[in-house]
Amino acid sequence: MTRILGALHGAILVRDLARAEEFYGTILGLPPAPRPLSFPGQWYQVGGFQIHLIVAAGWQTPCPQPDNWGRNPHLALAVENLAVFKARLITAGYPVRMSTSGRSALFTQDPDGNVIELSQGS
User: Fold this and answer.
1) Is 24 buried (19+), middle (13-18) or exposed (0-12) by CB count in 10 A?
2) Taking the CB of the first residue and of the last residue of the chain, which one, N or C, has fewer CB atoms within 10 A?
3) Backbone torsions φ then ψ of 85, nearest 5 degrees
4) Cβ(89)–Cβ(77) below 8 Å
5) Which helix (H) or strand (E) holds 76?
């Protein structure tokens, strides 16, 4: 049987690329990755994984369970210091909800409402 070797990238739809780049590039501090495509978007590198932002005018992020962001489609990232990211997000005006599972993790939303989980790495 053949097997899957790894994860390459995840795509996130955004309406406003400049606002999304501020969130992912500046607030989260993700380094940009080369992007050899001509349609609007931005790529970021996270270890061996990439996050691809794709512009989709009129996109509405689904959030079918607004009371528990972790039970919605989301991207999870490990961070060195969760408290630093929590403070950075709050200072920049982004919503923050701590995980109710007991893990050292939080949930936030990017400017388009995409849920992002940040978990304390080891």
Assistant:
1) buried
2) N
3) -65, -40
4) no
5) strand 74-79
Diameter of the chain measured on Cα atoms: 50
Domain ranges of the chain: 9-120
Q: How is residue 56 written in tokens?
A: 């989709």
Q: Report the sign of the C-alpha dihedral through residues 109, 83, 22, 31, in that order.
A: negative
23 φ, ψ (degrees, to nearest 5): -65, -55
Q: Per residue in 36-85, pLDDT tens?
A: 999 999 999 999 999 999 999 888 888 888 888 989 899 999 999 999 99
Q: CA nearest 51: which of 19, 87, 21?
A: 21
**What dotted CATH number matches 9-120?**
3.10.180.10
